[in-house]
Amino acid sequence: MKIGIGSVLMAASWLQVVVPAWVFAPPQQRMFGLAFVPVLALGLGSALFAVGAIVAGEGICSALGSTSLWDIVVRDPFMLLRLLACGVAAGLVLEIVAQWLGRLWYYPWWTTWFYVLVLVPGFALYWLFIVESYLAAKAVLDAAVRRRPVLRSVRLWPAGVAVLAVFAALSIRWYAQRDFTFDVTGPTPAAPPFGYAVLAFTGVALLDGGLVTAVSRRYWVPFAAIVLAAAVISVAFEVPNTVHWQWAYDHFPGPVLPGGLPLTVFLAWPLQYAVFLAVPSAILPSLAALFWQPPAHASASPVQA
What we know:
Strand 1 (30-31) and strand 2 form a beta hairpin. Helices cover 64% and strands 3% of the residues. It is globular, with a radius of gyration of 20 Å. By secondary structure, the protein is mainly α. It has a two-stranded antiparallel sheet with strand order 1-2. Strands 3-4 form a two-stranded antiparallel sheet. Helix 5 (112-144) packs across helix 9 and helix 7 packs parallel to helix 11.
């Protein structure tokens, strides 16, 4: 039931593709500088996709007997606030590194005041659907492969701190030679090398170390689940955006695919998943068992309040 409802909502999000062109054509009726009608149409599409992915992910986890975020919240209602706080923190890490400093995307239909208004609730919802899609992919793979126990996590946070220090030093040096401007609504003429963002995301992932620990213990499911979820969600989420560009990419290296999407965007999606899983695991260590280890048994939640 949940899988069907979620799939319908995700499919409905593609209706933004067939919204009449005149809705997005100038002149636009604006409210405090914001093109309200286009923003509403595109925002509704994104919200439908996010809610649909959450519902479908919950349905897949339930069908396979795996723990989902809803199972955790039911056991401890206060956990919802903690999860959302972790999601906002992870979203801010992503946005600061890749948008504010990396200048890798912008929001052409938005204004700065609207960006500030939706930043926190937007990332809370975005984080939920990213994590739910990962847990759904992990549930499928856990059901398909022989499970292996994962021993105590390797302490990799010193390496993560060192990598982040290198990223900070490189970024400071780059911006010391140029003026820093905060602009989330338009492209910028120059940006730090793309490798800086990759370096930062690697450092963040090492702070938790759960993914590296799982792979080192020959439990490949978390890595494969990140790749699988990123491959499915990135195509379903990015392709309709190329019609009216609620968010637009800039300074991504490499070839550009038909429709204007850089190929590197799809290759970078697994890094986003790694950040969105590593940051909450570092803030709330009890989440590490849910994200990085095989389920102990179907009915038990690995997260304790």
